[in-house]
Every structure is written in structure tokens, then in C-alpha cells.
From TrEMBL:
Cofactor: Mg(2+)
Species for this entry: Nocardioides potassii
Residues forming the catalytic site: 119 (pros-phosphohistidine intermediate)
UniProt keyword Transcription, yes or no: no
Record-listed ATP binding positions: 9, 57, 85, 91, 102, 116
The protein, known as: Nucleoside diphosphate kinase
Entry's Gene Ontology molecular function annotations: nucleoside diphosphate kinase activity
Homology family: Belongs to the NDK family.
Catalytic activity from the UniProt record: a ribonucleoside 5'-diphosphate + ATP = a ribonucleoside 5'-triphosphate + ADP; a 2'-deoxyribonucleoside 5'-diphosphate + ATP = a 2'-deoxyribonucleoside 5'-triphosphate + ADP
Enzyme Commission (EC) number: 2.7.4.6
């Protein structure tokens, strides 16, 4: 059975959508293995977003992720990595399909970084790496 790291990003927590997002995960049949409201640090984000370092949206992305608490979640279930990416929808909330978290609830605020409510690991390797960053010991 797979595990994936999900984050409700600061825009989702701020807008009071944490419960709605967890509801969709549970309704899909995935198990919540860990749920913790956390404040990110530059160190954690540098590891978490290492693949994006140097890209034009990297600075604004880190700043945004530090702008308020995030809900760090580990989910578990058959093919939950792909499954959660599918629930989340496309990165750009304007293009994300209706029925998805980003498509139904995400907005384009016209800012330097896409504020798109959630993060989900994109592979088994990323999931293991990211769970190690946010929940060492899990
Ligand atoms: P995550 O689940 O958050 O990793 O989203 P993703 O896998 O759909 O996107 P990706 O890993 O490529 O990028 C990480 C985050 O950086 C995105 O969720 C956005 O917040 C932001 N981002 C990515 N690409 C762009 C872009 O082209 N422009 C802007 N403004 N922000 C971006
Ligand atoms: Mg990603």
C-alpha cells in the first residue's frame, strides 16, 4: 500500500478549507496516517522544494509557504500518490478540472506564485523523501 505526503498550503488553511480537503481524501477511501498543523521553516522548504531551486517562482513560493501554517498530512491507500494528484487537479487552478480540489476551490489571484491549496507527492521516491522531511521517524 502506498503513502503520500499531502500539504494543505497556507491559502487553504487561511480560507478554512482544511476540513473540506480532508473530507475529500477520506471520501475517496484513503486513510489519514498523520495530520499536523505546522509552520514551515526555510530549511524544511529548501529540502521540500529542492527540485525548483533557481526557478523564477522559487522565492515567491517559499515566501508564500511561510505566510501561515500548513496542514501536513500523510495519507495511505492503494495508488494514493496518483490518486491524490488526480483529486488535486492541475497545478494552475484556472485550468484544473471541475470536480478537483483546485478546480472547485482554487483561485488565480494574479500573483507571482500559483496559490493552489494543496501539495501532493508526485512519485514513490518523492513520497518517501517528503515524508522523511515532514515526519522524520514515520
Ligand atoms: P505541488 O503538489 O505543490 O508540488 O504542485 P505541482 O506538483 O502541481 O507543481 P510543481 O511541483 O511543478 O510546483 C510546485 C509549486 O510551485 C506549485 O504548486 C505552484 O505553487 C508553484 N508553481 C509551479 N509552477 C509554477 C509556474 O509556472 N508559475 C507559478 N507562478 N507558480 C508555479
Ligand atoms: Mg510538485
Amino acid at each position: 500500500v502506498q503513502r503520500s505526503l499531502v500539504l494543505v498550503k497556507p491559502d487553504g488553511v487561511r480560507r478554512g478549507l482544511s476540513g473540506e480537503i480532508l473530507r475529500r481524501i477520506e471520501a475517496k477511501g484513503y486513510t489519514l496516517t498523520a495530520v499536523e498543523l505546522r509552520t514551515a521553516t526555510t530549511e524544511i522548504l529548501a529540502e521540500h522544494y529542492a527540485e525548483h531551486e533557481g526557478k523564477p517562482f522559487y522565492g515567491p513560493l517559499v515566501e508564500f509557504m511561510l505566510s501561515g501554517p500548513v496542514l501536513a498530512v500523510v495519507i495511505e491507500g492503494q495508488r494514493c500518490i496518483e490518486g491524490f494528484r488526480s483529486l488535486a487537479g492541475a497545478t494552475d487552478p484556472t485550468l484544473a478540472a471541475p470536480g478537483t480540489i483546485r478546480g472547485d476551490l482554487g483561485r488565480d489571484w494574479g500573483l507571482a506564485v500559483q496559490q493552489n491549496l494543496v501539495h501532493g507527492s508526485d512519485s514513490e521516491e518523492s513520497a518517501a523523501r517528503e515524508i522523511g522531511i515532514w515526519f522524520p521517524g514515520l
